[in-house]
Specification:
The chain is mostly helical and 320 residues long. The chain is built from 14 helices and four strands. The strands form two sheets. It has a two-stranded antiparallel ribbon with strand order 1-4. The protein has a two-stranded antiparallel sheet with strand order 2-3.
């Protein structure tokens, strides 16, 4: 499991980049926009899975760092002319610094207590988004210019999709490397048992702090990605609704499985668009169908799509 990357893991980012080059000419603007949303969801889900699926910690502040990434990038470029790459780095630094401060205060908390602490931070951050009008625009939101990459501006859905696909490929490669690193082994040990991990010489507090910072950086990157293809952001984009959706993506896809989390992000991310199209004449039933699919997924696939795939693969091998 640990060590160098397999060919299969190296192929994933390459496939994403190839799709970014080949697909846009054959897709309309709507499909490219939906594809951009799915890529953002995938980065968000991967970041949340690091702390919940790989480290076994219950944290709900992900959506706050998602908003911080979007607002820091947007404010720096739209008001101060800072190019997107520099704004992206600044957003990651701000999010990681805030995450470190929160981790110092809550690193000894576990389970529901850690969840409540992170919920409090998310609520406070959302309040700032809504009420610091001079900085964020408040409930009126912010209009966003095209992302400035110093040498070019990402204008149009095709260009935006290509940029986001490359960013996602890099995040995916970084995730595979992280999971196979020494920190990844420490995360897995803490997930299985904090006491055993501590006895084995792993610094539980330091590992929790690192994973919380890295997970927050992922969310910040997703927020910056939102800036690339969206023309407007407001505090409503960073409520608890996206947080619940992210948790559902992890449950449906399978916590602790990178391919499973990506599948869950894509399935749950595209589901509202599918329901809106199929049930456009029966809008009242959309939420019911959405909830029914979630309940059936949790009931029939307690370990998500990844767990179901492993089970089917194991049965096929036994049959041989």
């Amino acid at each position: 499991m640990y060590g160098s990357l397999t060919r299969y893991e190296l192929a994933w980012p390459l496939v994403v980049v190839a799709a970014a080059v080949l697909f846009p000419p054959y897709l309309n603007n709507y499909l490219l926009f939906v594809g951009s949303i799915l890529l953002v969801y995938a980065v968000l889900a991967l970041g949340l899975d690091l702390i919940m699926g790989h480290a076994g910690q219950f944290a709900l502040s992900h959506v706050a760092f998602y908003g911080i990434g979007a607002y820091v990038t947007a404010i720096l470029q739209s008001r101060y002319g800072v190019p997107f790459p520099i704004g992206l780095v600044a957003a990651i630094v701000v999010s990681a610094a805030l995450a470190a401060a929160i981790a110092v205060a809550s690193v000894r908390l576990r389970h529901i207590y850690l969840g409540l602490a992170t919920v409090a931070f998310a609520a406070a951050t959302h309040w700032v988004f809504e009420h610091w009008r001079n900085l964020t625009g408040g409930v009126d939101g912010m209009r966003l210019p095209p992302a400035d990459f110093m040498f070019f501006r990402a204008v149009g859905d095709a260009a935006n999709f290509r940029v986001l696909a490359v960013m996602f490929a890099l995040i995916l490669l970084a995730t595979f490397l992280l999971v196979r690193s020494k920190l990844g082994r420490s995360m897995a040990a803490i997930r299985d048992s904090e006491h055993v991990a501590a006895v084995s010489g792993i610094s539980v507090a330091r590992t929790k702090m690192w994973v919380f910072m890295i997970s927050s950086a992922y969310a910040s990157v997703a927020g910056s990605m939102l800036f690339v293809f969206n023309s407007f952001i407001s505090p409503i984009d960073f409520t608890f609704a996206p947080a619940v959706l992210l948790l559902t993506m992890l449950v449906v896809g399978g916590m602790g499985s990178i391919p499973g989390v990506i599948v869950g992000a894509f399935l749950l991310g595209i589901l509202p668009e599918v329901l809106r199209t199929v049930l456009r004449n029966y809008l009242v039933w959309q939420e019911f169908v959405y909830g029914l699919i979630l309940v059936l997924s949790i009931t029939l696939m307690p370990q998500g799509v990844a767990g179901l795939f492993k089970k089917l693969t194991a049965k096929r091998r036994e049959a041989k």
